[in-house]
């Protein structure tokens, strides 16, 4: 089966489930997808900045840090991780977990660190600007 | 920063290409790990393992889809998909080996057929000069009323070099001429080829010698002062065994010691297409190599023998160069009215120089290239037809794929990969076919001892062209079937096993293919027949002399300049040579000529004003080709004098100037009157009067296919020429007089080399057999290939139709149709297609005939015989191709056909 099967998205019979490429869904917000897409990258990089982690640990960390506000669907974490890896921002290594199971640990590269700095700077800029705008309308 | 990026990503990309299964396994494992944790968590919360599992799967939000998303991030999908496709395609092609092989063979023929013509076209038109930045090297020509491709004199060259500002240097080079070469004095000189070049030749062209240096500017300033030479790479390699210490040594050229200062690089075989010079010598040494005894190369402004080229400065357009040179030409006309009246100048690119209208070679190349592309087109239509037939048997497979969710574009890509694979295999085999075809071209033997080359070869440019053609044909023959087979109705496709849906549209496409094949091959056959007849006609008229001469005449060329003979001594030498040759045993007659007819070198041109002829308003003189001969020439060559008399000993330097013209000349200027006794004036109205003594039969002078041309013979005694060819007509075979000839030359001057000895047969073969033979062979092979392909295509189509309609035919026969009815039914369709194809092919062939007549043969009119032969035979053969499967259809047993699925 060489072709056809894999990239099954277009065509007559596609399931609604497959067509919706939901990345993170954010509670209490309508769909600011682009914003959140970039944000997920930022969050992952930030989490990995402290220590190398595997995917499962990253998803737990995401949950606890954001107080369940940011609910990243379990599945969509991995495409995001792989994308970051392909960009050269994080690098992966198979290691034993504390429970002696094999898992893929991701860690930040020098490039990733630099990217994180840049991105968090621009995030600060953006969020403070938005905060100001929101306050303005309240006043 | 970028490099660091690649440091991380390149290994990843390579991993995802070459360790794909491992990378995929790791992805599975990674996600499985996550899933397991989720399940554990859910169980810990109190769910049953079953529930926990489905909850985890839900949380993953489509596990497989996420994996796919992760794979997409690798960005190697296009490649891995492609590799998948290639693997799949090779498997599916192996399943139908017969069909695949046939398509590959078809394409191999099609692509291979283009090699030789494309190589010819490339060498004659497109291949750039072998120098850095060849694009801005332009050629400067002098223009007169008769030609805009004339050369410049030395004085004119200096003016152009010093007064133009558009160029980073202007260079000049003389003709490629024979040089007498010897290692030391006293040794008999051998003949090699070389050319005079200006001192800045190598520096302006940007050619750096592989050994030593190029010329210095001061080495080309004072006539005769600096005997220095740069060697050609071939000569250095073969004659001097690549002697690394050659620079600084001396060699003798035309009896003078020349210091070797450098060796041209391997990459620079010279600026001309067909020759590879052995020596480059500064223009200042021209007296040693001067061609005309009565002109002064350095002073005479009308001694025009230099090709002038320039390197356009960056930012200067061709038009600016032209304007500047035209202005300069006007200045020259004002300052030197004697030599430059009505003379302009023009600048052309390499392409414009090579595609000049008065040249025939490149036109052959282009016509061949077009014809060969027509063959390729036939091959592609054939392949397309076969793939279409195959595609319809795959309707179901494609429908299943579509149903499973494959995108149409993805499927088209997959099907195109198949045709790409076929085309690549075909292209590869085609290159092999091309090698063979080029070998045919190399069967030319060019009758000369000079270093000439046949520039047609399989090189990187040609391989690239073959590759491009392969890819183009892959799309040409693959796209239609791919589009068609992915278009169909899914439900229909799934239900119907291997049965073509009804509808005229599909058949229509295939019919077009057959019509295209029939018409293209008819056109090709017409072309090959035209060429055969064109050359054949050329061999009949004006060739009687050559058919006798080829078996009896021995030619030997001499050039006493190689030994520094002066004009008087040269004349004496030729006189004695001819006299003694006539007395030699076995010699029937002997004569001297500057250029034998149909030889390699072109004739000199002369300008004249015929007496008693009204000159047209727009011209002051007429032009004619001419030859310098002695009194024995017409006998020796076998060209009859039809009126008046031939030259005699008495037409010497002190006798009145005399000439003999050909019949065409006589009819041209004095139609219906006797030209004997009339006079022409050389160069201008009041120029030297020359009396016409006789009229010679018109023969072929330059090539066998030429239109009859004006021709004038002048006597050697009145017009001294240094390089002459002795013609010995033997009573028996020409080689019987070789030894007597060598004896005669030895007694006259033991040091004088015979430049070239050959029988007239070699010239005849070159002009009348090999050259046309190669052309005829190529075109005939193309025509035959196209016809073969068309037959196969037609046969395939009708046979396919029959097999598709087996059931229908069975029903027809079951309810009473007779065999002839069935044959008529099946054949009728083929008949219509062949008829339509023939009509279109006739129109194409007719157009082509007009084109070929205007470009090559000057025959005019329509060659009815060609059509009388080609059309019916084409029709018969193609009908046969349709008849065989029709006959088979009529033998179908109704009972079996009804069961046939």
TrEMBL record, chain B:
It is a multi-pass membrane protein. Residues 370-489, 781-894 form the ABC3 transporter permease C-terminal domain. The chain crosses the membrane at residues 99-120, 364-389, 420-442, 462-483, 512-532, 778-802, 822-844, 864-884. The keyword Kinase does not apply. It is found in: Cell membrane. Its main location: membrane. InterPro entries: ABC3_permease_C, ADOP, MacB_PCD, Macrolide_Exporter_MacB, Perm_prefix_1. The keyword Membrane applies. It comes from the Bacteria. GO terms for molecular function: transmembrane transporter activity. Keywords: Cell membrane, Membrane, Transmembrane, Transmembrane helix. One of its GO terms (cellular component) is plasma membrane. Residues 100-327, 523-721 form the MacB-like periplasmic core domain. NCBIfam families: ADOP (TIGR03434), perm_prefix_1 (NF038403). Belongs to the ABC-4 integral membrane protein family. This is ABC transporter permease.
């Amino acid at each position: 089966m060489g072709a056809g099967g894999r990239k099954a998205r277009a065509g007559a019979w596609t399931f609604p489930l497959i067509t919706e490429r939901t990345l993170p869904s954010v509670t209490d917000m309508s769909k600011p997808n682009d914003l959140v897409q970039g944000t997920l990258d930022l969050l992952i990089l930030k989490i990995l900045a402290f220590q190398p982690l595997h995917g499962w640990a990253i998803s737990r960390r995401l949950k606890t840090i954001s107080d369940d506000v940011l609910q990243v669907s379990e599945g969509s974490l991995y495409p995001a991780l792989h994308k970051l890896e392909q960009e050269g921002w994080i690098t992966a290594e198979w290691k034993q977990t504390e429970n002696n199971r094999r898992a893929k640990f991701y860690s930040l590269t020098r490039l990733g660190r630099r990217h994180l700095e840049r991105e968090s700077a621009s995030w600060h800029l953006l969020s403070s600007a938005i905060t100001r705008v929101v306050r303005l309308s309240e006043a | 920063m970028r490099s660091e990026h690649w440091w991380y990503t390149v290994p990843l990309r390579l991993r995802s290409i070459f360790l794909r299964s491992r990378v995929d396994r790791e992805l599975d494992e990674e996600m499985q790990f996550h899933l397991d944790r989720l399940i554990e968590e859910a169980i810990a919360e109190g769910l049953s393992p079953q529930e926990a599992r489905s909850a985890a799967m839900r949380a993953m939000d489509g596990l497989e889809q996420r994996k796919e998303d992760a794979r997409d991030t690798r960005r190697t999908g296009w490649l891995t998909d492609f590799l998948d496709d290639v693997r799949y395609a090779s498997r599916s092609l192996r399943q139908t080996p017969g069909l695949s092989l046939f398509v590959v063979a078809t394409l191999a023929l099609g692509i291979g057929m283009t090699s030789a013509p494309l190589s010819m076209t490339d060498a004659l038109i497109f291949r750039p000069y072998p120098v850095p930045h060849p694009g801005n090297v332009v050629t400067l020509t002098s223009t007169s009323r008769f030609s805009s491709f004339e050369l410049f004199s030395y004085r004119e060259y200096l003016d152009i070099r010093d007064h133009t500002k558009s160029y980073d240097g202007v260079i000049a080079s003389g003709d490629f001429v024979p040089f007498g070469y010897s290692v030391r004095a006293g040794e008999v000189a051998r003949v090699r080829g070389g050319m005079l070049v200006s001192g800045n030749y190598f520096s302006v062209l940007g050619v750096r010698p592989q050994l030593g240096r190029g010329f210095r500017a001061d080495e080309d300033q004072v006539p005769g002062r600096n005997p220095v030479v740069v060697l050609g790479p071939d000569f250095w390699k073969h004659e001097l065994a690549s002697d690394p210490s050659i620079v600084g040594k001396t060699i003798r050229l035309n009896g003078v010691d020349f210091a070797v200062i450098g060796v041209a690089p391997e990459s620079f075989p010279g600026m001309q297409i067909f020759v590879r010079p052995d020596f480059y010598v500064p223009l200042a040494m021209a007296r040693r190599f001067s061609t005309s005894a009565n002109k002064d190369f350095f002073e005479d402004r009308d001694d025009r023998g230099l090709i002038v080229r320039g390197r356009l400065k960056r930012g200067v357009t061709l038009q600016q160069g032209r304007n500047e040179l035209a202005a300069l030409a006007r200045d020259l006309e004002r300052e030197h009215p004697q030599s430059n009246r009505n003379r302009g100048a023009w600048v052309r690119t390499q392409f414009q120089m090579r595609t000049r209208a008065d040249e025939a070679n490149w036109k052959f190349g282009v016509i061949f290239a077009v014809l060969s592309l027509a063959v390729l087109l036939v091959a592609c239509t054939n392949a397309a037809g076969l793939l279409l037939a195959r595609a319809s048997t795959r309707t179901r497979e494609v429908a299943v794929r579509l149903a499973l969710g494959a995108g149409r574009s993805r499927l088209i890509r997959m099907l195109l990969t198949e045709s790409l694979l076929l085309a690549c295999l075909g292209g590869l085999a085609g290159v092999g076919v091309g090698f063979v075809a080029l070998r045919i071209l190399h069967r030319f033997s060019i009758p000369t001892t000079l270093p000439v080359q046949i520039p047609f070869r399989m090189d990187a440019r040609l391989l690239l062209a073959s590759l491009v053609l392969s890819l183009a044909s892959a799309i040409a023959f693959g796209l239609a079937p791919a589009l068609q087979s992915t278009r169909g109705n899914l439900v229909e496709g799934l239900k119907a096993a291997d049965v073509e849906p009804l509808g005229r549209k599909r058949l229509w496409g295939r019919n077009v293919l057959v019509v295209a094949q029939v018409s293209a091959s008819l056109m090709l056959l017409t072309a090959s027949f035209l060429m055969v007849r064109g050359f054949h006609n050329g061999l009949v008229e004006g060739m009687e002399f050559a058919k006798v001469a080829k078996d009896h005449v021995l030619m030997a060329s001499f050039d006493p300049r190689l030994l520094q003979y002066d004009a008087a001594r040269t004349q004496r030498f030729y006189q004695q040579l001819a006299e003694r040759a006539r007395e030699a045993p076995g010699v029937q007659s002997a004569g001297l000529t500057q250029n034998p007819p149909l030889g390699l070198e072109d004739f000199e041109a002369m300008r004249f004003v015929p007496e008693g002829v009204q000159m047209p308003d727009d011209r002051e003189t007429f032009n004619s080709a001419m030859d310098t001969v002695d009194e024995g020439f017409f006998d020796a060559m076998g060209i009859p004098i039809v009126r008046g008399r031939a030259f005699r000993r008495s037409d010497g330097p002190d006798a009145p100037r005399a000439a003999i013209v050909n019949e065409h000349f006589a009819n041209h200027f004095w139609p219906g009157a006797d030209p004997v006794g009339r006079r022409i004036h050389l160069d201008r109205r009041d120029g030297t009067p020359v009396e016409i003594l006789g009229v010679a039969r018109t023969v072929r002078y330059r090539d066998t296919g030429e239109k009859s041309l004006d021709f004038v013979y002048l006597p050697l005694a009145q017009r001294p020429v240094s390089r002459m060819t002795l013609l010995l007509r033997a009573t028996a075979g020409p080689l019987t007089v070789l030894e007597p000839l060598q004896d005669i030359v030895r007694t006259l001057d033991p040091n004088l080399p015979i430049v070239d000895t050959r029988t007239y047969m070699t010239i005849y073969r070159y002009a009348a057999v090999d050259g046309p033979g190669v052309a005829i062979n190529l075109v005939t092979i193309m025509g035959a290939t196209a016809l073969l392909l068309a037959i196969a295509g037609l046969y395939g189509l009708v046979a396919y139709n029959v097999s598709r309609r087996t059931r229908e035919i069975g029903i027809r026969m079951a309810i009473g149709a007779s065999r002839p009815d069935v044959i008529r039914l099946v054949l009728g369709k083929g008949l219509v297609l062949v008829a339509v194809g023939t009509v279109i092919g006739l129109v194409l062939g007719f157009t082509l005939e007009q084109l070929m007549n205007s470009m090559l043969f000057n025959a005019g009119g329509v060659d009815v015989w060609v059509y009388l032969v080609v059309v019916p035979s084409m029709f018969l053969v193609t009908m046969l191709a349709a008849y065989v499967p029709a006959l088979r259809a009529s033998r179908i047993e109704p009972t079996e056909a009804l069961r046939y699925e």
